[in-house]
Amino acid sequence: MSAKQPTRKPTGKRKESDASALEGRERKRAAKRKGLKAGSRQQVEQGNKGGNGKQAKDPRIGSRKPVVLIVEEKQSKPVAPKPQKEKKLVMTPEQELASIENDDRLNDLLDRLDAGETLEAAEQAWVDQRVDRYQELMDELGIIDTDEDDDGDFDDVEYEEPRQPASEEELWERFSQVDYQPEPKPEPKKK
C-alpha cells in the first residue's frame, strides 16, 4: 500500500437532529424507570377525588389543634373540692361487735393498760372510743357484760338464806295444786 491511505468514511453514528436526540433521551429515561414515580400514593388519591379546587384531607393526619404540654392553673374561678362522702362499710351490729372483739391493736393496748402502762393521748382517745362503741353495741344487742357483775359490791345485794329441802308431803301438795292440763295429742293422719 501506498504511504497514503485512502480516507475512510466514518462508519459510526450518524448525526441526529436536536429534536430526535431529545426524544431518544426521554425514551431512554422512561425505559430505566420501572414502577410509579415517588409520592404517587398521594397524587393518585387526590386525582381520583376530582379537581374541585379543594385539597382532599389526608386521613392519616390528625388534629392540628395545639396540645398544651404544661398545665397552668386557672385563676379565674377557684374550684372548691367537693366534700367526699365517707363510705362506711355497712355492718350488722353483731359483725361490728365481733370485729371490735377481734381487733389486735385494741387488745394490745388494753393489755398494756392492764399492765399499768400509760398510753399516749391519741391512743387513749382511740381506746376510749372503741370501748364506748363496744358498750353501745352490747346495750343495743341486749348482751349482759359479765365483767361488770364481778366489779359490783356484794354488800348491797340481798341473798336468801339457803333453806332445808322440802319434805315429800310439801312437794306432793305443790304438785297437786298446779292445774296440769296436758295438750291433746294430734290425731294420726289417715292414708
TrEMBL record:
InterPro entries: YihI. The keyword Thylakoid does not apply. Keywords: GTPase activation, Ribosome biogenesis. It holds the Pfam family YihI. It comes from the Bacteria. GO terms for molecular function: GTPase activator activity. Residues 1-12, 27-36 have a biased composition (Basic residues). Interacts with Der. NCBIfam families: PRK05244.1-1 (NF003560). This is Der GTPase-activating protein YihI. It comes from Aeromonas media.
